[in-house]
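Notebook p. 47: complex prediction with flavin-adenine dinucleotide.
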Amino acid sequence: MSLDYPAFGLTPEHEALRESVRALADAKIAPHAAKADQAAEFPWESHDALVRAELQAVHIPEAYGGAGADAIATVIVVEEVARACASSSLIPAVNKLGTVPLLLAASEELKQRYLLPVARGEAMFSYALSEAGAGSDAAAMKARAVRDGDTFILNGTKRWITNAGISEYYTVMAVTDPAAGPAGISAFVVEKGDAGFSFGAPEHKLGIKGWITIAAQALGIAQGALDYAAGYVKERRQFGQALAEFQGVQFMLADMAMKVEAARQLTYAAAARSERAMQGEASADLTFMSSACKCFASDVAMEVTTDAVQLLGGYGYVSDYPVERMMRDAKITQIYEGTNQIQRMPVISGRFRTPC
Ligand SMILES: Cc1cc2nc3c(=O)[nH]c(=O)nc-3n(C[C@H](O)[C@H](O)[C@H](O)COP(=O)(O)OP(=O)(O)OC[C@H]3O[C@@H](n4cnc5c(N)ncnc54)[C@H](O)[C@@H]3O)c2cc1C
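Predicted complex, structure tokens below:
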């Protein structure tokens, strides 16, 4: 059997996309990452650079003014931006999270109205599911939506919403049929200016202030930490030689690189399945793959960034160097979009389910 197709490989277009996003992230996003982290501010410089390069929401189909990037291309964009700055990678990541419910289920009128401004970079979309008392158990939410003639009245308070106050639009989950359990939850688009909609004070977060997207973010954070540590150990000398010449250090780097590549392959394989699913092809293991890549890539990011801090020694622990920020950012990828405990539950991962 001859292999005249790139089995388990990316297309030249995907590789070219990676190169251009990496160049943009190195030049326009990385220089502002520490400042955005320290000030806990929204990274406007990154936002503007992403919008100028039309990378803020590449997944939006061409029919709605977007680039129509496939799921792997979208993963590459989030990964490469996260390699430079995890907070900035939330711009394409959360725009995707907020708009996927529209792409999947909204009327043509809603899609035209809300996707075009996001594709043009004039507005962002947040995703509002969690509440103070409803995190992992999202179905325990208290937000209610009650029909009032042609409209709905929403009542409730959401918590932890990424880019809240910055985004113009919000996909808000609320219970429409309390008797139906999780199936009685519906998604609504709420505009920032809607009557009665207000924002609380921002949370003081440890770090950065759909599962595959978070895996891509985790992957980028891990790659950024690996690249930084690999460069550092070549420069830093102890006992009369570069740290990179010690076999113990080489073994650590080799383990880090293996883990990152394993996470990348799993994430891309999941993205390929999700792309096929978006095009209507059934994929029996999409749920397992999405859950597995989110869990695995975020655990890898935590391990690799912790090892990167270790390789920098004391310098790894201070904010003059980026790896401690990357370690804090890696932590959140194990928590949001379904904690890694929840992702491991068989009912979520869709495997090992016993018939009942
Ligand atoms: C920085 C940040 C940004 C966020 N952005 C958004 C956003 O944009 N939109 C949004 O809707 N939400 C967002 N969230 C909320 C996030 O998704 C939740 O924090 C997350 O789902 C966990 O919920 P919780 O914090 O209530 O923890 P809990 O559900 O209280 O969990 C606490 C611990 O118990 C474990 N646990 C819970 N249930 C089980 C179980 N059955 N078995 C085993 N272990 C269990 C969890 O894994 C965790 O370790 C964000 C959170 C943060 C911190």
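Notes: Strands lie at 125-128, 144-148, 151-155, 169-175, 185-191, 237-238, 241-242. The pocket of flavin-adenine dinucleotide is lined by residues 126-130, 135-136, 160-162, 205, 332, 335-339, 341-342 (CB under 6 Å).
Next step: compare against the earlier run before touching the bench.
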